[in-house]
Amino acid sequence: MSSHPHVEIPQDPGRLPMTLPRLAEKRRLGDPIVMVTAYDYPSARAAEAAGVDLVLVGDSAATTVLGYNATTPVRLEDMLVLAAAARRGLKTPLLIGDLPFGSYEVSDQQAIATAVRMVQEAGCDAVKLEGGGPAPASRARAIVGAGIPVMGHVGLTPQTSTALGGWKAQGRTAGAAAQIAAQAAALQEAGCFAVVFEAIPAAVTEELMGRMEIPVIGIGAGPATDGQVLVFHDLLGIREGLGPRFVKRYADIQAEMNAGVAAYAEDVRARRYPGPEHTYKVDPAELEELRALLTA
Ligand code: KIV
C-alpha cells in the first residue's frame, strides 16, 4: 500500500477562480500576476496552496520530470496525462496547457485539434504556444477562433532553440529586439489573452511594455512585466545544478529527497525499519489457528 492520497492542503476559501477578465483587471491595477509550472497532483496542490493566478503545464516537463535534455521530445499524449493530473489538484488558478513541439506547426486545423484535446481530455482552461512569426500568429488566431484562450510566448522559445542559436538570451541587438516587439504585437493582434517574454534583457522588456495591452508574464525578462513565471523544479531546487541565471531558488528539495531516500535505505539495511509502530496486529487466537492450519 502506498501513502495516503489526497492530503487536504489549506487554502483561502474566499479566493475566486481566476478568469480572463480578472487577469486583465490585475494588469490594469498593476497587481503582479503570479504564474508557476506544475506537472502533477502534488505540484498543482502547492500552486493552489500558494494562491497563484496561473498554472502552466509547461513542455519543460520534458526536462523536469521526463529526463530529456530538450523540450522537443515530449509528446501530446505525455502532456495530456500530466495536465490532467495537475487539473485534479487545482481549484482556483487558470490552468494553461503548453502545446508541445509537433502538435501545432503543421496547420491551423492541427493546432485547433490539439488545443481541443488539451481542453477536453486534460481539462485545461487555455493553451500556450511558442513563437510569434506569421505561422504561430495564425495558429493562435485559429485556436482563439475556436473558442479556446491562447497565451503566446516570445524571446527564448525552447522548442526552436537550435534555430535561435541555443538556450541564450534573445533581443540583444536593436534588430532582434524589434523582431520580438513585432512578434508580441502579432500575438496580441491574433487575440492572445497574455504573452510570455522569456530571456530578454530587462531594458528591452521595459521598452516593449508600453506597446502591450495584454498581460505580459516574464521569465528572465526583468521586473517590468505584469507578472512572473518560474519553473516549479527550478525554484524549488528539484534538479541538478542551479539552472538559468534568472532563477531564484527558494528551497533545495532535491537535496532533501536524496537525504530522505538515503536515510530510508540505511534504515532498511540496518533493520531499523519497519519498527513495531509500522506493523499491523492480529488476534493471537487467529495466529494460533493459522499455525494449526499450516502444520495440518
Ligand atoms: O515550458 C515551460 O515551462 C514554459 C515556461 C518557461 C514559460 O514555457
The number of distinct β-strands equals 8
Order of helices and strands: HEHEHHEHEHEHEHEEHHH
User: What characteristic shape results from the CA principal axes?
Assistant: elongated
What is the rounded Rg?
23 Å
- Note the gap between the termini: 31 Å
Q: How much helicity do the residues have?
A: 40-55%
Instruction: Tell me, rounded to a whole number, the average pLDDT.
Output: 95
- The strand line-up of the biggest sheet is 1-2-3-4-5-6-7-8
How many H/I helices?
A: 11
Which keywords apply here?
single chain; 296 residues; alpha/beta; 8-stranded parallel barrel; 11 helices; 8 strands; 40% helix; binds 3-methyl-2-oxobutanoic acid
Question: In terms of topology, how is this protein built?
Answer:
Elements: H1 20-29, E1 33-37, H2 41-50, E2 54-57, H3 61-64, H4 76-88, E3 94-98, H5 108-120, E4 126-128, H6 134-145, E5 150-155, H7 174-189, E6 194-198, H8 202-209, E7 216-219, E8 227-230, H9 232-235, H10 253-269, H11 284-295
Parallel strand pairs: 1-2, 1-8, 2-3, 3-4, 4-5, 5-6, 6-7, 7-8
Helix pairs in contact: 2-4, 5-6, 6-7
